[in-house]
Write a structure and sequence with these properties.
Shape: globular
Radius of gyration: 23 Å
Structural class: alpha+beta
Helix content: 25-40%
Largest sheet: 8 strands, mixed
Length: 506
Amino acid sequence: MKILSYCVWKRSAYRAALGRITCSRNHSSSSVENANVAIIGGGCIGTSLAYHLAKFGVNDVCLLEKTELTAGSTWHAAGLTTYYHPGINMRKLHFDSIKMFNKIEAETGQEIGFHATGSLRLAHTKEHMNEFKYMMGRHTHHPANQQLVDLDTIHFMHPLLNMEGILGGLYNPGDGHTDPYSLTMALAAGARMYGAKILQDTPVTATRQRDDGSWEVDTPRGTITAKHLVNAAGFHARQVGQLSGLDLPLVPVHHQYMVTASIPMLEEWKKEGREIPAIRDLRGSYYVRQERTGLLVGPYEAVDKMVIQDDWYDDGPPKGFGKELFQHDLDRLDKCIEHVVDLLPIFNETDIQSVVAGPITYSPDILPLIGPTFKLKNYWLAVGFGYGIAHSGGAGKFLARWMMNGEPDYDLIECDPDRYGDWCDKQYLLDKARESYGMNTTPVFPGEERWAGRPTKRVSGVYQQTKAKDAGKVKHDCFYLHLYIFLDLLNLPLFDTTFSCIYLNC
């Protein structure tokens, strides 16, 4: 008997279960009471999906925004974009995003403030340098440019850096940053241009599935009937999902970044049309990019210092929270700031003009939930984006083509909306989100499994047996279960804490 892979089986099941979306060049009916696709959420993800669906010829696309476009996490985002991602499939999303950023201004006439400065990842440890080499080996088939760079090249690109202790860098020439507000406005303009409707000040109060699989969506403007419903509601996504009986493992974390006053060298560079590349200091766990003629510095606080807005998990965001921010707390950033001052001594001589502290939605593993769910027919998810700007263009295109064709252009099994079962309870989500955020730039070794949230409430009898035999911890990898007891008998570690499969000639 032929056994299908999980990905192929799931795609086949979706194709059988989902009706294909109607496409037409007669883009829009005159009614807002009926829609082919109703999208809940007007951030960069929701508007990207509306834009791509409408551009690809899907008629009667309607986007519903609770207050105004970008309200939520989009408006205050730092706007970084990159071709890089440790996951091979996720790089395709990043690639399609930047390709879109380079074209959408000319297409819509709306500037998005995209600065293709390139970005440098810096290694101060042997482990990070080996990780760079490992990533170069995994990048060979990817069309985007990526290269290892030496110290002289790094110093030439970014003269403000203190080079002491840096071993090397990983450079992505096409990376950069964009203005999230302007990007969303461009996507919305493109969506409207191709026939989609965008309704602002239109909160969704209820969703009901009809017998034929279509959806009724209640709003203060009335009820909209849609063949397909998409939840792209950002940090409201969990509550929007609950309207349809879904329990989505999502929680907001506090993310802070600082913006400095103007720096004379950057003022001179700007006159010459130059800009420093974005920096990701993996040792200090923060990013730095140019903001006008100053610096924007965004740390990822340590596991014991970061803050999760866990009350939103149960109660949802406060009523009216949209373009508001949290109270910032620079004391949580003290260790990161020490690293910033060491790498960029100019930071110690420059005033901090502003600090932004806002919510970013995290899933347990930081990866978004993209696609349909088996739990509800014709219900699609585009939620849990910890890096929404970088993912926006690619995610909108990926999901639009899946909705049109009945299957995706490529597998993103790591973003499967159904990858979390009932075992993923609140405590597991909080533990893993804290670990994922706090270890953001820690090297991830091949085959490594991290331990926060384990054991879950779902364990088998073999777990207790191996634990009773002092087998230590159990490692899982996809559908294979590797028991530590056998590795222990061979005097081998639980996993290889090296990048042993590096292509040394890269």
